[in-house]
Each structure stands twice: as structure tokens, then as C-alpha cells.
Design goal:
2 copies of one chain form a homodimer. Chain A is α+β, with helices and mostly antiparallel strands and 402 residues long. Chain A is built from 14 helices and 16 strands. A 4-stranded mixed β-sheet of chain A has the order 1-11-10-7, sandwiched between helices. At the A-B interface, α3, α5, α6, α10 and β15 of A face α3, α5, α6, α10 and β15 of B.
Chain lengths: 402, 402
């Protein structure tokens, strides 16, 4: 297979540079390169079969317990509660934090729709704040400015003076696996007495100042969807150090049923969110490979960084000092002059089989969230117009060791 | 193993009668008899392994498609949409039917909490109606009386005159797999212009007048939880004959993302409810055994019916003419004089290893639903005090063929 004839279809310098560099991967890979694919090179088959033969495939079983324990250990927290997906984990964490009808949740607009949906399911309202180009997560300075502008304390509650609604939680998201500036965000949360919940859906295995993402907030949500660093098919978990919050999370996710040998009494509106044992069996096997996957993905990121060193008009995102990203998705950022070429670049890359995508359409620009309160979102909009995620599977590092 | 010395601990005639009859199962089974356990005697292992090796374990994959097609065929409908569980299926069906904030949903109080939770998640309000002793599902006569008492049409909408709220849907549940009187319920729904959604969580494989449960309403929800007649670990599905409703269900359960090669645009508040492919693989293998399981469970019910023939003070529930129940859970009903002995009977049965349970605590008696509107619920309360579900696994019929 020879390199696609790039120059014929694409005359722009930045596009041809990127396509030339990434095109080398095609030579070694021999075909389409997915954005992110799972790999099952551990005990997955053995544990799945064992789980099936035990007949405990559903919401009770030893793999759920084992997965929760291993996950808590991997994330440096005391407790984890495994659920059906990351969205469910977020919803439950927000509910426990006190989000309810008409309360506002501070979050990025630069995120997957689940972040905002989770608040909406509870009757809550997303309140969007801008992100930082350094981390791609909530900018602590913009956040503090926004709160100084709108926040008041009334009857002991933090209120948005412009809407009259309670501000109930701060929900930063570690974008593409890259840790937010947690020290600064925790300081804002403390100053405004706001519970901080981490949306760590993409950041399993990432670290900030030597501590795992997901271990900083009162609670955190992680995801094990098929496109994540490890997968359970579909799945997620709530992480926390607080035994009482963990108890609440377990209770709410198992229909809030009070323990009894046979009676069905439910003391709150709960959810049918427990992770099935068969999915947890897959998770136990996958989790055992997490460190290796992080290592591979960091090696891939490093490779990309070398490949793109010295290229004009586009840079590859690199973690800041003190952060260790799992580089869930590697990220090209076009310079502002070249933002207009993003779609052409996406078109070109996808056409030749290098599956790539832009960031999520900023949530405040979707009709469903257009009425939500927000600060200025200039970096969100600028970065959205310039970001392209490129293939980032853990197994890819072997294929591109050029 | 010898029979437990029943007469020593239990002097009541009805209890000793039941325990003597069911005690025979222990002799053959050699230990504890679960209420309902899954059995994997088909291609489960093969398909799970195949799914894993394909790497498509998550929300896209051929097993999801295959499962949906086979399920639609089994349920006599044109479309099915596979989701994470029966609760999610109910929620989505109700949303599509138009249930939203402050709309009332007519449903039994004699049901699992998920039926009411599904309405609550949408801001809807359960409105409880009584059940019939013949079917254990909503009593069409009580329903019609209740609607005649409270319903008015205002601006083309059905309103509860007592609360001023819209009545948006009728949600009968096929209790323990026994079909409701669908003909009469559909007639009420038609007369009051109410969309009818079937909660068929327990009734996969049951038939009414020769047609499968789940094929009568505008939509239906089924469940594949571990305790159901077939299982996907955790799972459920929305059933419908209407291609447009199926399209909406698929769209809402996949985050309402508009199809595009790379863009993330979501046009409604959606859900992350898609069934993972690994769970669907299990489902494909299980579904192939549905007919056999229904046959075994009906043979078991028949066996129970013979065992309890002629016993005083307690009867075993039998389907009415025109219904073919899957007998998901077999049901003993104490006569009214013996209702006081229900807990003693449960205690005794569970103590000797015959795992048994009462019906769900009626939802209107739970604090969380105590304020919901309701008609008279005398049969609901009476039956709750008298019902005991006994072991009903499909594989049990072999063990008790006495």
C-alpha cells in the first residue's frame, strides 16, 4: 500500500503537513485507523465464561464487588459504586451533592452532552463557564470571575443573583483525559462553599500532582464505555472517599430498597443503575491492564509530540507540569488563522482512513441548552473551531514506532 | 436429606399444608430452592466469546441488531429497541407517549417500584387504580369507574378534574407474567383517548387471546434482568409496531445525537440507554430458548396446580380462559381468614430453604408515593396481604416431577 496522493486533493500547507505525518500510520497499520478501539489481551474471556457458568450474571455477584474494590484502589479512593454508565454515575453523584429542581450546576460547555444531561435529569440547570487552553478544562480564573460577578449568599445558600436560583455544585470535566487545574478549582470551590464533583469519565488513569483524577472531589464519575481506556461494554462508577456518600450512592442505584429478607420497601426515588456482574467480569480483566494501557497511551502521545515538533500552524496538546494525562484522545490544535481549515482537515483524514473528530459542539450552542446561564465562552468557541482528535488506541504505539 | 420437621415449628393447618407440599421439592433438589434463577443451556458461552473476540462489546454491534430482530419476532411486533433495563424502557416509552412534568399516569399500585419511578423521572405522577383478583393486573371496571368519576376533557386533553392535571397514559402491568384483560383495557383506553403502554417486564412469552403480551399497546417495555424468564445480565427493550415511535425510541436512547460522520449535535435531551453488544450476545442465545422456557414454566405451574388441588384456605393462581401465562412467578393466594399467617408462612418457607416472597409493598403505601392520586385500592391491599410467590425457575419442573 502506498501513501494516498495527498497533494492532489489538498493544497493547504497545514493539511498536507498533518496528513503526511499521520499518513505514515496507515503504512504500518495496513488499513483504517479507528479513533479509539478497545483491546482485550488479558483474562477477559476466562472471567466472562466463569461469570456465565456461575449463573450470577446480573446485579449481584462477586465480580461487581471485586471490580469496585480494584477500581477504588486504582483511583486512590476508599469507595466505588459500579453502575450502568458514566451518565448514571454523574446523575447520582449530583443528586447526592444536592442538585435538584432549578438548581444550577457550574460546568464546561466544552464537554460531551452527558455532563449537562445528568444535571437536567434532576431538574437542574447547567451554568456554563469557559475553559483554559492549558488544560482544556474549566478555567479557574474565569470561574472565579464569574462567581464574583453573579454569586450571593442568601439564607446560607449560594445564589445566582441574576436568576435567583441556587448554585448547587461545581462539575469540572477532565477533557480528553487531561487533568483540570484541580488545586485552583478546589480553592474556588472552598471559597464559595460549593461541592465539587469530578466528571472523570475520560480520565481513568490520569494523575494530577501525583494523585489520580477522580480522587479530588467530594465524588467523581468515571466511564467504561467501549471507547474509553478500559471498557465493561457499558458501565461507569461513582468514586468517593466518604463512606456515607458511598452508602447513599449504592442505595440510590439499587432502587433505594431497604434491606429485608423479602419485603419491598423503597424509601426514596431510586434508580435501576447497578452494573451487571457479567459487565463487571469484563471490567476486572480490563482494570488489571490499566497501568499498561496508560503507559502505551502516554508513549503514543510522546510519539505524536515528536512527530509534530517543528510543524507550523498546528500543535499537539501536551500536559502541563504536574499533570500526567492518560491521553485518552490525542488532540491537534490549529492556530487561529487555520481554524477555517478544520473541516477540510477532518474530511481529508477520515477519507484516507485516519478516523478523526472535532470536539463536541459546545453545549451552549445546542438548542436544548441555549437558554442556560453562562459566562463568556470565547475560548470554548475558539478551541471548538480548532481542535481535532486523532487516533489514540493504546495498541497504536506499536504501529507507529517510526 | 429428610423433610424438615414441619409440624414441630408450625402448628397452623394452612402453613403445614403448604410446607408439606413444597417440602417435597427440597428432597429432589437437595438444598435451597431459589425463587427464580437463570439457566444458560444454549449458545451463551459461544456468543459471548465471539462478541468479545470481535472487540465490539459496547453500544454498536451485530448482536444488538440481531437481538432486536429476534425479540420483535418473538413478541409479534415490528420493532424493538434494546436498552439497559426495563425501567429505562418504560421511561422512554412514557416520554414518547407524552408524559411530562405534572402529567398523571394511570397504573397499578400492585407492581414493582420501577413502574412508578419511570413516570416520576419524567416529572409525571402515578395515579393508582385497583387490580382484579382474576388477572392480578389493573381491573378494567375499576379503571372505567375511576375515569368516569374524575376525568374531563378540556381543550382536547383528558384532565383529572380533582387535580387539574393532564392524564397522559394508561400503564397496565402484566403481574407475575399473567396477562391483563387487554380487550377491556384497550376499550377503556379508546373511550378516553388514552395511549396505552404495556409494562410487560415480567410477561415475555405470555399470550392473551393468542397474541403476545407486549404487542397490544402503542408501546411496551420488557425486562431481561437476572430474575426474568430470559436474561441479558441487565437489559430491557421497547416494543412497538409503529416505525416512527421506534425511530424516536432509538434516537432518545442514543443521546438524541443527529447522524453525522463526526459532528456531535443532539436535538433533544436524550439518554445513554443503549444495550451493550456483550449483553445482547447473551440475549440472542437466551432468546433462542424462550419457547422452551415458557413450556417448562407452564409445566411447572401445572404441576403446582395439581399439588395444591383440594387444599383448603389457599389457592394457586391460574390463568383465566384466553390467557397463556409464562408463569414468571407462581403465586399462592391465602384466603382472607388466613391473611394474618402470610408472614409466618414466608418465614417458614424461607427458613427451610424454599425461597419465597410476598408481593411488592403497594406503592401507594410507600412514603414516596403516598401523595399520589388514587382510586379505591381495596383489592390491592387485600391481595398484598395474601399473596406469596414460590420458586418458579424454568429448570424446576424436572426436579418436582412427582
Amino acid at each position: 500500500m502506498s501513501l494516498p496522493s495527498i497533494n492532489r486533493v489538498c493544497s493547504e500547507k497545514v493539511i498536507s503537513d498533518v496528513v503526511t505525518i499521520l499518513g505514515k500510520m496507515l503504512l504500518r497499520n495496513g488499513g483504517k485507523i479507528p479513533l479509539h478501539e478497545p483491546e482485550f489481551s488479558g483474562n477477559e474471556e476466562k472471567l466472562l465464561v466463569d461469570c456465565l457458568r456461575s449463573t450470577y450474571v446480573s446485579s449481584v455477584g462477586r465480580y461487581v464487588d471485586e471490580f469496585e474494590q480494584a477500581l477504588a484502589l486504582a483511583c486512590g479512593v476508599n469507595h466505588s459504586v459500579a453502575v450502568v454508565n458514566g451518565t448514571a454515575a454523574l446523575q447520582v453523584a449530583l443528586r447526592i451533592a444536592g442538585v435538584n429542581v432549578n438548581s444550577e450546576v457550574l460546568m464546561p460547555s466544552f464537554t460531551f452532552v452527558a455532563t449537562a444531561n445528568a444535571a437536567h435529569y434532576l431538574g437542574g440547570i447547567p451554568h456554563f463557564v469557559d475553559i483554559s487552553e492549558k488544560t482544556l478544562g474549566i478555567d479557574p480564573i474565569a470561574l472565579r470571575e464569574r462567581l464574583n460577578e453573579i454569586a450571593e449568599v442568601k439564607d446560607g445558600k449560594l445564589i445566582n443573583g441574576q436568576t435567583g436560583r441556587t448554585i448547587s455544585a461545581l462539575l469540572p470535566m477532565h477533557t480528553f483525559g487531561n487533568p483540570c487545574d484541580m488545586e485552583a478549582l478546589l480553592s474556588v470551590a472552598k471559597d464559595f462553599d460549593l461541592p465539587l464533583i469530578e466528571d472523570a469519565a475520560e480520565a481513568l488513569g490520569s494523575q494530577y500532582h501525583g494523585k489520580p483524577c477522580g480522587s479530588f472531589g467530594a465524588m467523581a464519575a468515571v466511564s467504561f464505555n467501549g471507547n474509553k481506556i478500559i471498557t465493561t461494554g457499558g458501565g461507569g462508577a461513582i468514586l468517593t472517599n466518604d463512606p456515607e456518600l458511598a452508602r447513599q450512592a449504592k442505595h440510590l442505584t439499587t432502587t433505594s430498597k431497604l434491606p429485608h429478607q423479602w419485603e419491598f420497601v423503597h424509601d426514596q426515588i431510586g434508580y435501576n443503575y447497578r452494573m451487571p456482574n457479567i459487565n463487571a467480569a469484563l471490567g476486572v480483566a480490563q482494570l488489571a491492564q490499566l497501568k499498561l494501557k496508560v503507559k502505551s497511551k502516554r508513549a503514543l502521545a510522546n510519539q505524536y509530540q515528536r512527530m509534530f515538533a517543528g510543524i507550523q500552524n498546528v500543535r499537539i496538546f501536551e500536559e502541563v507540569d504536574g499533570s500526567e494525562s492518560n491521553y485518552w484522545l490525542n488532540t491537534l490544535i490549529l492556530n487561529e488563522d487555520n481554524a477555517v481549515k478544520r473541516d477540510e482537515l477532518l474530511e481529508e483524514l477520515n477519507n484516507i482512513g485516519i478516523l478523526s473528530r472535532p470536539a463536541w459542539t459546545p453545549l451552549h450552542t445546542l438548542d436544548i441548552f441555549a437558554q442556560c446561564p453562562r459566562g463568556k465562552l470565547s475560548l470554548t468557541e475558539s478551541l471548538f473551531s480548532r481542535v481535532v482528535n486523532i487516533p489514540s488506541s493504546a495498541n497504536l504505539v506499536r504501529d507507529i514506532s517510526v
